[in-house]
User: What shape does this take?
Amino acid sequence: MSTHPAESTSAGGFNLLSVGLALAVLVWMSLATSVADTEGLRAPPVLSVAQTDQPPNVDGSLDDPAWQNAAGFTGFTPIGSDELSPYKTTVAATYTQDRLFVAYACPFAPHEKLEGAVRERDTGSPWHEDSLEIFLSPDPESPDDCYQLIGNWAGSIYDVHAGDRKWNGNWEFKTKAGEGLWTAEVSIPFADLGTSSPQPGDTWRANFCRDVVAGRSAFETWADTGASYMTFSQFGHLQFVGRGPVAMNDFPTADNDQLPRYAVVIAAPGDRLAIPHLADYAR
Ligand SMILES: [Ca+2]
Assistant: This one.
């Protein structure tokens, strides 16, 4: 397999989307990005994240009301590519006063076999397994001050702060795997990310990625970060909106495999949009 994209520095990614009641969502936002090695890349996407009073139970199953009400996104692309990934990975996020929650639904072909070992924290190479990777930069002025959370489908974790794997965040990570689908839930205290509870309007930089081994080999990313996951200036924007309305991409539907058009729709909380819903993956 090729070099892990977090081990080099370049770019590739993007976003499509899926949602339910309008809580968390994605929007494209026009921002100044550094031009150097990011020329020609798609603009960073935006995920609006709404607060919840009903935090999900972190057990790997996405049947919580929080996820039924949360918006999410899909539209991952392999790094350095403008082609949509064949399976629509879906991600959603929500938060409480103290913690950020992220859900992943990772489809794969039923005949394919997931790869990933159970082992000690911060050991091995989970990026060469079926894993997810979350990059969080709470200070948008210093996106390279980044927390990286990696978890494989078997539940092993690997976490890094600013390149230092000795950092161990107090995050919860649970997965569930079945035929053709593995799901995961992540919960991390804001305090472990060196920050306090976000106020409405606060914006972080972030990237959400999926390492794929089952049936193929791919590094798939939300933000178009070029040949790596970690072109920080290309990270998406994680916009905390409290309980306010969220803005969302006019993203493709399940039957539309085109890249997002980036038109923005403003949705009131509670609106259900006609797009794939994370709860469809509940089991
Ligand atoms: Ca660590």
Notes: The chain has a mean pLDDT of 78. The first strand starts at residue 25 and ends at 28. DSSP finds one helix and 16 strands in the chain. Residues 171 and 188 are 4 Å apart (CA to CA).
